[in-house]
From TrEMBL:
Pfam families: TPR_19
Protein name: Tetratricopeptide repeat protein
Length: 286
């Protein structure tokens, strides 16, 4: 017959061991939860930067359905929708974010950005007006400038653009926007200066190079600016200069630039060749 004290000790040992195993299991689960949280955060960051926008939308749609109260996932869904060109859908998600307790002024700025992308300028202006003036960020003033531009309030637009440029170390995009604003209101010289400055921050932007050529052409300066460019880019920029010259009545110069574009292009430049043929045909008829 086994001693009752020994049995009690065994039972007590089993309880202690069970308690230890339960404690260890809880610790393991806690550690796994932490790892999963880190992994999820990293995955969210990847989806918002290098991931395919449509895949990002799918990922955040699933994530928000599983964790609807997580504001970081809701923000991720809205941002990925904007990247995927779904600005209208993003507006609804940003409104959902703003209804959450942890929402902030940056979320309002993001809502205004989505509204502008969706062409809802009045709504964007109303959203920006709800943000206190003490919230001074690059994104906020960039959007303020764009809204002022849309209203042709040039003085206010210039002030906002200038403020935005001073709030970032990478102002190339806002300088390009500002330059295009100047060009649209007939200040080609001012636009040229801003496009040139933008290229000092981002020398690879073909859009800015093309805008610079248009600004110079508006002043009847058809020679290409001294900027870094590939042979393909050179051909395209010559084409832009040619079209600008022709539109301004400098047809002979435009024809020469078209020929240069065709000769410069490393591959067959169909648009330039067609334009050149059309000019030749028109000259023969004349």
């Amino acid at each position: 017959m086994r001693h009752p004290i020994f049995l009690a000790a065994l039972a007590g040992g089993a309880l202690v061991l069970g308690g230890c195993m339960g404690s260890e299991k809880a610790e393991v689960n806690k550690a796994l939860d932490s790892v999963n949280a880190v992994d999820a955060t990293n995955l969210s960051d990847i989806m918002l930067t290098v991931g395919d926008p449509r895949e990002a939308v799918s990922y955040f749609t699933r994530a928000t359905s599983e964790h609807p109260d997580r504001i970081d996932l809701q923000r991720g869904l809205a941002k990925s929708m904007v990247r995927a060109g779904q600005a209208d859908a993003a507006i609804g998600v940003w409104n959902r974010v703003l209804a959450m307790p942890a929402a902030n002024n940056d979320d309002k700025v993001s809502l205004a950005d989505a509204q502008i992308r969706a062409g809802k300028w009045d709504e964007a202006k109303a959203t920006l007006n709800t943000i206190p003036p003490t919230h001074e960020t690059f994104e906020r003033y960039k959007l303020e400038a764009m809204v002022a531009d849309s209203e042709k309030n040039w003085k206010k637009a210039d002030s906002f653009y200038e403020t935005a440029v001073g709030l970032t170390t990478r102002p190339s995009s806002v300088l390009n926007n500002w330059g295009f604003s100047k060009l649209s209101r007939g200040d080609a010289k001012g636009a040229e200066k801003l496009f040139s400055e933008a290229l000092t921050y981002d020398s690879a932007s073909f859009t800015t190079k093309n805008n610079l050529v248009m600004a110079r052409a508006a002043q009847h300066k058809y020679d290409l600016p001294v900027v870094d460019m590939t042979q393909t880019e050179r051909a395209k920029l010559l084409y832009t200069a040619a079209l600008s010259a022709i539109k301004q009545g400098d047809v002979a110069i435009g024809k020469g630039l078209l020929q240069d574009a065709v000769d410069t292009s490393p591959v067959y430049f169909e648009e330039a060749a067609r334009a050149l043929e059309a000019l030749d045909a028109g000259g023969k008829r004349g």
